[in-house]
Amino acid sequence: MRPRSPNTRHHKRVKLHIERPTLLLNQERAIKNIEKMAKKAKASGVRFRPHFKTHQSAQIGEWFKPFGVKSITVSSVDMAAYFSSHGWKDITIAFPTNIRAITKINALAEKITLGLLVESSETIDFLGKNLKSNVNVWIDIDVGYNRTGIPWSSTREVAGLAKKIAGSKNLAFAGILTHAGHSYEAKSTSEIRRIYADSIFKMQKLRDVLTAKSFSNVEISVGDTPTCSVAEDFTGVDEVRPGTFVFYDAKQLDLGSCGEKDIAIALACPAVAKHKERNEIVIHGGAAHLSKDFMLSKEEDKVFGYVCMPTENGWSPRVNNTYVSSLSQEHGIIRTDAAFFRKAQIGDLLMILPVHSCLVVDLMREFLTLEGETLLTMPKFN
Amino acid sequence: MRPRSPNTRHHKRVKLHIERPTLLLNQERAIKNIEKMAKKAKASGVRFRPHFKTHQSAQIGEWFKPFGVKSITVSSVDMAAYFSSHGWKDITIAFPTNIRAITKINALAEKITLGLLVESSETIDFLGKNLKSNVNVWIDIDVGYNRTGIPWSSTREVAGLAKKIAGSKNLAFAGILTHAGHSYEAKSTSEIRRIYADSIFKMQKLRDVLTAKSFSNVEISVGDTPTCSVAEDFTGVDEVRPGTFVFYDAKQLDLGSCGEKDIAIALACPAVAKHKERNEIVIHGGAAHLSKDFMLSKEEDKVFGYVCMPTENGWSPRVNNTYVSSLSQEHGIIRTDAAFFRKAQIGDLLMILPVHSCLVVDLMREFLTLEGETLLTMPKFN
User: Fold this and answer.
1) With an 8 Å Cβ cutoff, are B347 and A291 in contact?
2) Residue A228 pLDDT class (50, 70, 90 cuts)
3) What distance lies between CA A35 and its chain's CA centroid?
């Protein structure tokens, strides 16, 4: 008999101890995902400023450092404070600045290179009056997602804000930033590529206008996992800020941003009941673990996750005709076919590929690596 | 000038300190909700076994004790362990028993009166072999929700399981338990009343069959907030297990289970941006705080929460024509009319009545009372 590798042996030990919904992390896959994105950015001569809201973990943050990552993105002032306290010195908060948190913002600005995002003159006025140290200020641009930002075609408004930033004490105009979140609605990778090209086109046009108005060194920052994953290179922008790519998930798989073997997390869930008349398996693993984010199947059914089996080294490819069809707080319902229904037993673990890794991590707050190490996220509130 | 009451003064102080999404709790309303439900149960001569998954807090658990509550419901083995460590001695885990957690189940069964829920002979066999102390076992019955449980009309199957329980070492057959979760789909309070009456009818018919087969003292346990809120009394059952009623929420308001002044929690969110062309206000308050649970408006739009204004004593009645229309991880988008759009300013706090209080509490993990006290939930994992 061949001796098992240490890795396999470790995983087997982990498997035996799982008794409740547990977020498994395949560290090797996550590091491969980081390496691939970092190399693509480097080859394009573009700054890689990954979004750390996906993992929220100082320990996982360390995995980025060997690939030269020194600058990061976060989504809240508290998250910036957490990563700053773990040694990160160049952090952009890619969320419209929350002026109520000015005390914490000032504390950060004193210590690190802080980037803020604005899209209104009220916020710029407030910062000009209340900031005590220098910050880099980005203007949030809407290239079609319609969530936040100034429409890219409102060049006069953007130029007006840029002028106000440049004229405000402690504020330096860094550039224009967008999140092309409408890429999540794309029906094909060619549509994602089109959205990426369209975003870059709009951002460059806007920069040209700003440059013509004598703003120098206006940087372009883009970043969402679908476009950053399918884009061949990042020529034409100054920095990319994807986040979800570190783990990917079922939604990214459906979009074509990743392959199944790139997905680095799965939620291990105990099977607790079976309903033969409906070919349904009930798991302990609900909205409190997976979040209520869903995708629609071709048949327009809600899908809250794909289902895999545990293996010696992690989890199997996804089981055909099988998905999480509904969730309540602690319950998940898996709909399957007669073959898998017969195979799965009460007390088994089933491995769920989540729809949205960011929200699952935010709910679970800790990871168990396949080597048996527990990694923590930041505290929910600090 | 009239002196302000201490309560008002305290709340004013709290309001000034809110700088990030914060879950506010109106303690007075929560206690009124507890009192009302406890009195209704008492008047019907029925055991009140409230579901503590909604608040998950030992401190809030104490508020039930003055109303004679000694027995509680939880949704996981870990939650049972938490409340047991805070002195609760009679706990039912109203979730299909997770046999992988047998070590923790045995530790609990040794210390407290533990109720378990089963719906398969495999689970009963496992418990019979592995339990080391006595537990009360309930059979999960499906009266129409189709999530878990044996269909109520499968009387032979239920009787078979009851017999197996009664014949197993350390297992005592306690009765039949249901959760009529389809009440959440009701279109009117009269439909909720019909669902309640229908559930009771089915459970009583099933008990009659079991009694005829010589099972004695078969108890009936029911409980979901809509039916328990609108039912006039609880005659005909032995215990009720509602949970959400302690705080209620926007969904319960829409269902008619509560009035707006019964809602005891609201998420305070800073306004960070405004989009005049869409009458939209962006708040810091997203899926990481509110969960992705939604309701559909009459116009079939997704609604992730209602919007109120802060007041000296908490929050105002909900603002007309105004609701949370979409959420991403940290962003919430409020859709409103021109009048409220003009009124709300960047930096203001807006108070969101959440769609599903259980999930918001699970995400937020702490409450700030209007008197300025921070109350904690159980740790996410222990």
Assistant:
1) no
2) very high
3) 16
